[in-house]
TrEMBL record:
Listed name of the protein: Alpha-catulin
Organism phylogeny: Eukaryota, Metazoa, Chordata, Craniata, Vertebrata
CC terms in the record's Gene Ontology section: cytoplasm
Family: Belongs to the vinculin/alpha-catenin family.
Coiled-coil stretches: none
An example Gene Ontology molecular-function term: actin filament binding
Compartments it resides in: Cytoplasm
GO biological process terms, semicolon-separated: cell adhesion; Rho protein signal transduction
Predominant cellular place of this UniProt entry's protein: cytoplasm
InterPro entries: Alpha-catenin/vinculin-like_sf, CTNNAL1, Vinculin/catenin
Pfam family, one: Vinculin
Length: 723
């Protein structure tokens, strides 16, 4: 931003002292920022000798460029006669451009090298986990197993935190969702590996116990490999990453093409449109061929598929005529054909959505009692092999139903991250079903074995947990379809607030009961409506990468997750989760206020005082919310009062945000229209400078580059069984 201001500076015959001082401050601010940045880069270089040379060269280039910019913007010599021959931005603007290019190039190199270091850390951590897993597979005594598993647990903690940081840094929502799925597999499989390995050690000659253990190790290796594929952005096996297109995304793309005919009659061929429709209708066969689709839904889908073909034929006919002669009547006929085709596709989308979600709702309701799992546990303890065989057949049937449900839901999920979640759920049912069967067979063969019984419990819990996750996924898919959630995707990769936070350790998390949810429902609904308003305002911005927009979208997403909490849904499960989310929301609001201040410094407009006033209000409200969220309370009544206060204050912040976004958008548009409401950016504020002075400390380095010491997290992991 500062460099852009310098490059875009216009030379004028007369320069005021204010202008000269502003230019000099900008140059100094750039140099100061580069100095802090380079200090961090040099510290990282010293810790990573294999990249030290490359990093040091990039840091030297950046420092040199920063110093050059500072020299060229040193306008103090202009007070002296021109004969001083002092070169400045006014006499050598080309020099500033060259220095700026060198600076941006070298800074990019430093960032890329730092990123390579992070990737290498994750790969190294993965390799340590794999090596220890190999030792665990070959272990033959309990004492040796306990010792190695303790080491394995610590290595998994380190890997979990490294990949968690990476997941939060990812910008691609598909990769975020895939990373979240892989990390979930690793966390659940760690406990499975513990009990499956112990069962195998206790019953070394049991084939079903060995099969059970091998399945866990295989699944963990696949998950570890997928994490590395995401981190390195590679597919080592050469397979195609693209999943089959879903009906929802196919219809969306098809409608965009059809509606595009209004603007351009020649941008695609009729064969192209026909092929797209054929692909969509082929996918509807997943529904019409499914044994679990009702007769009514099947008939409607077939009927709409036939109608879609007819509508497209009519559209193509009018379209071809319109290409030859653009008469008013033909263009009106084309508009009617476009509307009818799109309406037919909407009805088809609605029908497949209804078919998938009604099947899912029925299956999830039918399997909530977990009767088959309970029967397997009972018959296993009784040692009744025949009964176990009977119930394993029933579980296999249930697995096939649930796998089919996931496949159909994927077609109507509405967003790519939700599609990936459906695929992950399908894989989980496919793998966990046979593992439960092998664990049940082991227990039936050794009915008095406590460890075999515990092992079966662990796998059954994983199945029940996945069924519970499916209920939440179904609600999210319905929310997207009905427009209650739009394209918000943050929840798939949102870390579970408070899970590893040592400061929250002593607090007991609780859930809201039905009565409390009813009391807070109105406030939650208001919050929901405000998130929709904010989303609507952010969509009006041409530059979606604008810092103000980014913070606004982030706050809207967090507010939406708090609204879901008031309904007993979403990933915020307990009051402690909500309070932690409120703190993060307030922090994001403070960052937005900083961005608003930076923006207001560039504004020459009547609205500037109002913008500053609103920004100060935002800071005050966010501070109040943070104080409320961090306040310690005891007892159910006090906790609910705190929940109510957090939601209320979040609502107030969102109300203010609805006023701020259109105001900023208006100022930006004025600038683009040439009204000159923006002036050159001012120097960095003192608080930024103070913040940056500690950049050379290890803590600051870790915060900046995500290269963290993970030792302090080990004690907070809760998913490992103690020795």
């Amino acid at each position: 931003s500062q460099i852009t201001t310098l490059i875009n500076h216009k030379d004028k015959p007369k320069r005021s002292d204010k202008t000269l001082q502003a230019i000099q401050r900008v140059g100094q601010a750039v140099n100061l920022a580069v100095g802090r940045f380079v200090t961090v880069g040099e510290a990282i270089a010293n810790e990573n000798h294999e990249l030290k040379k490359e990093m040091s060269v990039a840091c030297i280039e950046a420092r040199r460029a920063g110093e050059t910019i500072a020299q060229l913007t040193d306008v103090a010599s202009l007070d002296h006669p021109e004969s001083d021959s002092h070169i400045t931005i006014f006499t050598d603007k080309t020099g500033v451009v060259k220095a700026a290019r060198l600076l941006l190039s070298s800074v990019t190199k430093v960032l890329v090298l730092a990123d390579r270091i992070v990737i290498k850390q994750i790969i190294t951590s993965r390799n340590k986990v794999l090596a220890t897993m190999e030792q665990l597979e070959k272990v033959s005594s309990f004492q040796e197993f306990v010792q190695i598993f303790s080491q394995f647990g610590n290595e998994m903690v380190e890997f979990a935190h490294l990949t968690g940081d990476r997941q939060n840094d990812l910008k691609d929502e598909k990769k975020k969702a895939r990373m979240a799925a892989s990390r979930a597999v690793l966390e659940k499989c760690t406990m499975m590996l513990l009990t499956a390995s112990k069962t195998c050690l206790r019953h070394p000659d049991c084939e079903s116990a060995r099969i059970n253990k091998d399945g866990v190790f295989h699944r963990m290796r696949l998950a570890l490999e997928q994490v590395i594929e995401i981190v390195t952005d590679s597919r080592p096996t050469g397979e195609n990453e693209m999943a089959p297109i879903s009906i929802y995304s196919g219809i969306k793309e098809f409608k965009n093409k059809v509606e595009g005919l209004r603007e351009n009659l020649y941008f695609l061929s009729k064969e192209n449109l026909s092929t797209m429709l054929e692909v969509i209708l082929e996918h509807t066969e997943d529904f019409t061929d499914s044994a679990y689709t009702s007769h009514e839904h099947r008939e409607h889908i077939l009927e709409l598929s036939k109608q879609a073909k007819m509508e497209l034929e009519q559209l193509v006919s009018v379209w071809m005529q319109a290409q030859n002669q653009k008469t008013k009547d033909l263009m009106e006929d084309l508009e009617v054909a476009i509307l009818k085709t799109c309406q037919c596709m909407n009805e088809l989308k609605r029908e497949v959505h209804s078919a998938a979600t009604s099947l899912a709702a029925d299956l999830l309701k039918y399997h909530t009692d977990h009767m088959v799992l309970k029967a397997l546990k009972i018959t296993g303890v009784e040692g009744n092999l025949e009964a176990v065989a009977e119930y394993t057949c029933k579980l296999s049937e249930q697995k096939e139903q649930l796998v089919e449900m996931c496949r159909l839901l994927r077609h109507v999920s509405g967003t790519e991250p939700l599609e990936i979640t459906c695929i992950h759920a399908e894989d989980t049912f496919q793998v966990t079903g046979p593992q439960i069967i092998s664990a049940a067979e082991t227990l039936a063969l050794h009915p008095s074995s406590k460890i075999a019984k515990e092992n079966l419990e662990v796998f059954c819990e994983a199945w029940e947990s996945q069924l519970s996750d499916m209920s939440m996924l179904l609600r999210e898919i319905n929310d997207v379809f009905e427009g209650r959630r739009g394209e918000k995707r943050v929840y798939l990769s949102l870390p579970r607030p408070g899970k590893h936070n040592a400061n929250l350790k002593a607090l007991k998390p609780v859930k809201l009961d039905t009565e409390e949810q009813a009391k807070i429902a109105k406030l939650g609904l208001e919050l929901h409506l405000l998130t929709s308003d904010v989303d609507s305002e952010t969509e009006k911005w041409e530059d979606q990468e604008n810092e103000i927009v980014q913070h606004g979208q982030g706050m809207s997403s967090m507010a939406y997750s708090m609204y879901l909490f008031t309904r007993g849904e979403g990933l915020l499960k307990t009051t402690q989760d909500l309070f932690h989310q409120a703190e993060i929301f307030a922090t994001e609001g403070t960052k937005l206020a900083s961005a608003l201040h930076a923006f207001s410094d560039q504004v020459h407009d009547d609205d500037k005082p109002l913008l500053l006033l609103e920004a100060e209000k935002l800071i005050s409200m966010c501070k109040q919310l943070q104080i409320t969220a961090k306040a310690s309370v005891q007892g159910k009544s006090a906790t609910f009062t705190k929940v109510d206060a957090c939601i209320l204050k979040t609502r107030n912040v969102m109300t203010l945000l609805c006023q701020l976004l259109p105001l900023c958008c208006k100022l930006l548009r004025k600038n683009k229209a040439g009204n000159g409401c923006l002036k050159p950016a001012p120097p960095w504020r003192e608080d930024r400078i103070r913040t940056g002075t500690n950049a050379h400390t290890p803590e600051r380095r870790a915060e900046t580059f995500g290269i963290k010491s993970l030792e302090n997290h080990v004690t907070n992991m809760t998913f490992l069984e103690s020795k």
